[in-house]
């Protein structure tokens, strides 16, 4: 049946009262041919004007919980229904991932693909999560969370480098697929490198955790801004910010976590598999050799029901003054992040990661830096809540800015009262 005959048939059905939502419109179309897109098992109900779907992604390239696509053919003032179910793909020949990882309480949407906002809260109906929204636009982007693609990172890093005389846009390396890994290097003034603190901030070792890239952006925005404390930090530190580590899985819409042979955050070994890990490890090792690996921050998003929190190593695995310095930094960061308005939920109690957490626990980045760093290195993983009304681009960037302000205050304290350093 051709399109004209199909529309005519719909019109007859509408006149006969076959469905109160039936309409002779352009058909809805799902598009997923752009960077970061991911969807599968799409079914479109033209009468109900609904799209049923599951997250896309190859389970061998990480947890299949990320989804992101565009819907075309929407009428003005029309309400669209999204019907989401979890992926049925087996992970490592085991049972599928729990659907809750793919089902935010509120989905994310955009009219222009740049400005993102939340839908109304979804409704769980059996295996389905139902979201409804009225975009008042012909096309609509929808996603698990606010997307942040490699092209987004490239543009942000380039724009900051052009805008700020204290920031240099560069690349960490090229990925195994040949993609550039954007990196920002920030420093101000003529202070020699040997007299500067070293600060390393990286995000998105797990590709589906898009909120972490927005946190990294907020961090970079603060340190290149006009605040006098930001200027102090630029003058006293070398700061490196990588908004996306796993650029390949981010670009192709794969989850990244537990990708084969292992994900980026299990790759900090003597022989890293991923180019990004190898390059980051080499630069961090250089900072350690110069005795200035002062703050290492690895940014993530946690489980569906978790608030924001830090991961730390058990106290018995590290020595003083690292323990005292780490605890002080956590206190400063908690104080600043918890004051964000509207408040970002954050736990004051870090979670411990060690031998019981994962077989490759020694190869997790923050752990590796703690165990191989300087005596005064603070190395932490920050998990920023994603399943909250505050988990927006604005909320994430506010966390990043607060985290940067905590780094400045912590390092300023270090210049006044440097720690007594035992031999390691």
TrEMBL record:
<dbReference type="InterPro" id="IPR000834">
    <property type="entry name" value="Peptidase_M14"/>
</dbReference>
<dbReference type="InterPro" id="IPR050821">
    <property type="entry name" value="Cytosolic_carboxypeptidase"/>
</dbReference>
<comment type="similarity">
    <text>Belongs to the peptidase M14 family.</text>
</comment>
<feature type="domain" description="Peptidase M14">
    <location>
        <begin position="146"/>
        <end position="424"/>
    </location>
</feature>
<dbReference type="GO" id="GO:0004180">
    <property type="term" value="F:carboxypeptidase activity"/>
</dbReference>
<dbReference type="Pfam" id="PF18027">
    <property type="entry name" value="Pepdidase_M14_N"/>
</dbReference>
<dbReference type="InterPro" id="IPR040626">
    <property type="entry name" value="Pepdidase_M14_N"/>
</dbReference>
<dbReference type="Pfam" id="PF00246">
    <property type="entry name" value="Peptidase_M14"/>
</dbReference>
<keyword id="KW-0378">Hydrolase</keyword>
<protein>
    <submittedName>
        <fullName>Zinc carboxypeptidase</fullName>
    </submittedName>
</protein>
<keyword id="KW-0121">Carboxypeptidase</keyword>
<keyword id="KW-0645">Protease</keyword>
């Amino acid at each position: 049946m051709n399109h004209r005959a199909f529309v005519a048939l719909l019109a007859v059905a509408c006149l006969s009262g076959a469905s109160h939502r039936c309409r002779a419109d352009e058909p809805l179309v799902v598009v997923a041919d752009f960077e970061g897109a991911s969807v599968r098992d799409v079914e479109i109900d033209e009468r109900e004007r609904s799209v049923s779907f599951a997250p896309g992604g190859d389970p061998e390239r990480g947890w299949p919980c990320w989804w992101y696509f565009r819907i075309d053919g929407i009428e003005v003032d029309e309400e669209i229904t999204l019907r989401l179910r979890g992926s049925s793909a087996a992970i490592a020949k085991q049972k599928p991932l729990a659907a809750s990882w793919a089902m935010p309480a509120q989905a994310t949407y955009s009219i222009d693909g740049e400005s993102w906002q939340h839908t109304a809260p979804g409704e769980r109906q059996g295996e389905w999560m139902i979201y409804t929204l009225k975009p008042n636009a012909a096309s609509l982007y929808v996603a698990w969370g606010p997307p942040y693609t490699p092209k987004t990172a490239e543009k942000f890093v380039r724009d900051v480098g052009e805008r700020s005389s204290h920031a240099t846009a560069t690349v960490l390396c090229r990925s195994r697929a040949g993609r550039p890994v954007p990196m920002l290097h920030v420093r101000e003034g003529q202070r020699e490198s040997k007299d500067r603190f070293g600060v390393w901030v990286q995000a998105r070792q797990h590709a589906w955790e898009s909120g972490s890239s927005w946190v990294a952006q907020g961090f970079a925005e603060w340190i290149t801004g006009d605040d006098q404390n930001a200027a102090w930090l630029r003058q006293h530190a070398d700061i490196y910010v990588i908004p996306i580590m796993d650029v390949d899985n981010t670009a192709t819409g794969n989850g990244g976590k537990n990708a084969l042979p292992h994900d980026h955050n299990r790759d900090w070994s003597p022989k890293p598999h991923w180019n990004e890990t190898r390059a980051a490890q080499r630069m961090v090792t250089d900072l350690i050799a110069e005795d200035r690996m002062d703050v290492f921050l690895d940014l993530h998003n946690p489980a569906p029901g978790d608030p924001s929190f830090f991961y730390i190593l058990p106290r018995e695995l590290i020595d003083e003054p690292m323990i005292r310095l780490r605890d002080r930094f956590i206190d400063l960061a908690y104080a600043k992040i918890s004051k964000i308005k509207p408040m970002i939920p954050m736990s004051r109690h870090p979670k411990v990661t060690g031998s019981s957490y994962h077989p490759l626990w020694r190869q997790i980045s923050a752990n590796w830096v703690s165990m191989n760093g300087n005596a005064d290195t603070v190395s932490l993983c920050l998990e920023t809540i994603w399943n909250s009304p505050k988990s927006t681009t604005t909320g994430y960037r506010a966390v990043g800015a607060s985290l940067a302000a905590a780094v400045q205050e912590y390092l300023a304290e270090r210049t006044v009262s440097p720690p007594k350093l035992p031999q390691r």
